[in-house]
Amino acid sequence: METIIASAIAVLGTLLGSGLTLAFQQRTTDKGHQFTRHERLRQERLDAYSAYAGALINYRRCLVHLWFCEHEQPPHEDPGVVRVRAYDLRSNAQEALFRMQMLTDDEALSQAAEAVLADVTALPKTDSRTELDQRRVKTRDDISQLVRASKRHL
Questions:
Q1: What domain of life does the native source organism fall in (predicted)?
Q2: Do 67 and 126 form a contact (C-beta atoms < 8 A)?
Q3: Which of 59, 83, 104, 152 is the most core-located residue (most Cβ within 10 A)?
């Protein structure tokens, strides 16, 4: 009888040990999956935020060039050609904005990103070189500020 009880206790101990081991393994696996998901989202955000900042810089540069083509004599390049390039770059910037907005859970960051695009788009609508220079500085600073704000969400 004692042998049977001892065997039963040993089996229960083994089952309890196996159950605890399984629970710890499952917990470790879950933490690993959670870390992997978090890291993948962080990397996607980093890619999206970087792509958006790059798209804004390229679009901004093209619009400044367009302003000079339209206002300086003689124009450096045909304004129509530059305008078409600007439309393409605006589309790229909008696509990058949408991707960024889908990946962020911060509404203020999303709105700030949209506002920067609107400010950049307004660059060629200036009449004077002084106003253009002021808007260039503002949009450059706004893009830098957006990059700094984005870093807090990685």
A1: Bacteria
A2: yes
A3: 59
